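Page 37, continued from 36.
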């Protein structure tokens, strides 16, 4: 049994004014149970007087709260998961869907209080989702690094015909991919860009990482599933003086890659601890959200 939760952090999708009443009601519900709500800035702006003295940055909130409640879409969850992992924490997250798809943020508004009650009481199931750590290297020095929940995507620029990427796994050369790009995805991210690019759906309980070329120029190039313990290195072959290859991290941030750059991806130290409603299986979510296996 987990310790009794005393503080719950509230994170909301920026600009989500339609969540004003929900945020205020959640704050009152928590306070009525002797639990202190803490608010990320966007949530605090919607909460009004309830947020007085309780507004925190997302980084501060991740350290102080024992549970983080996310209201928004999958993008909001991705950003929050990255901040928690960057802090080296294992704070559990309950994600409530206010987006258009909500594959990761699968808890619905009618399920909100039941799921929150179960999370606070310690009876809610928690899934540990593998996260990746991506680093952009130049001459051996780290230019940027970030924990990733879904995927790392290396793609061609707007005027490029295709990318030319050498990939190694644990210092063993894999292949030189000529394609529109390459996706390195977690099992959680298998239902995101990876799926659109023809990659497989992988159950999030599988400890694996996927390598999926985007529109490969060789028909024999197919997605590859490798152990999540692997360290991957992607080396772009970029013409001198041009920056026409880009890396995108969880769809949140992107950077151009120079001729001498490389991208290193390995398993992150901390997983995402995701609280799930008990009413649906993973396969039911696939059927509902993605219309999987429908005729």
């Amino acid at each position: 049994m987990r310790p009794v939760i005393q503080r719950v952090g509230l994170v909301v999708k920026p600009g989500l004014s339609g969540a004003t009443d929900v945020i205020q009601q959640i704050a009152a519900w928590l306070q009525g149970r002797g639990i202190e709500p803490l608010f990320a800035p966007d949530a605090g702006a919607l909460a009004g007087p309830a947020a007085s003295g309780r507004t925190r940055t997302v980084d501060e909130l991740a350290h102080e709260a024992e549970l983080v409640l996310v209201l928004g879409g999958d993008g909001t969850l991705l950003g929050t998961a990255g901040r928690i992992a960057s802090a080296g924490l294992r704070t559990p997250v309950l994600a409530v869907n206010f987006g258009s798809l909500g594959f990761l943020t699968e808890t619905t508004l009618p399920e909100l209080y039941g799921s929150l009650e179960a999370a606070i009481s310690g009876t809610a199931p928690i899934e540990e989702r593998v996260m990746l750590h991506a680093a952009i290297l130049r001459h051996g020095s780290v230019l940027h690094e970030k924990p990733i929940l879904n995927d790392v995507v290396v793609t061609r620029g707007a005027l490029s015909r295709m990318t030319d990427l050498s990939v190694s796994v644990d210092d063993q050369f894999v292949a030189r991919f000529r394609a529109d790009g390459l996706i390195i995805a977690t099992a959680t991210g298998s239902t995101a860009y990876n799926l659109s690019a023809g990659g497989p759906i992988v159950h999030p309980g599988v400890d694996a990482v996927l390598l999926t070329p985007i529109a490969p120029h060789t028909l024999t190039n197919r997605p590859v599933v490798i152990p999540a313990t692997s360290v991957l290195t992607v080396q772009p072959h970029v013409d001198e003086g041009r920056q026409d290859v880009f890396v995108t991290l969880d769809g949140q941030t992107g950077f151009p890659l120079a001729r001498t750059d490389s991208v290193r991806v390995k398993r992150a130290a901390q997983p995402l601890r995701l609280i799930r409603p008990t009413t649906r299986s993973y396969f039911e979510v696939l059927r509902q959200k993605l219309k999987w296996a429908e005729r």
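The chain has two domains: 7-129+271-290, 132-267. Flag for discussion at group meeting. Residues 134 and 265 are 5 Å apart (CA to CA).
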